[in-house]
Amino acid sequence: MSDTLTQEKITVGGYTAYGPVTPEAKKIFYDVFPDGVHGNAIYTPFEVATQGVAGKNYKYKCKVEPKNPTIPIVWESVVGIYQPPKGEPVLKSINPI
Asked: Which of 23, 38, 55, 90 is the most buried (most CB within 10 A)?
């Protein structure tokens, strides 16, 4: 075992630091947001933090754009998704930042 412990190993019950969106995290995100669309907006995740619980919690930092290209506004949100040990991932929250 390495003498260097990662944030994930020492933060029991807490979220990891935000980092790149892994292929696993990307799949879970797009299972909940097919094509990145939710309501009238398109969500593109650019960072993710995770928390191991009975299942796994994900917090995604996302760029958000309106589906209507004539609206010239872009913002960021944090999207919370829970992946239970068995079954489909569940959208828990969307919070603008």
From this structure: 38
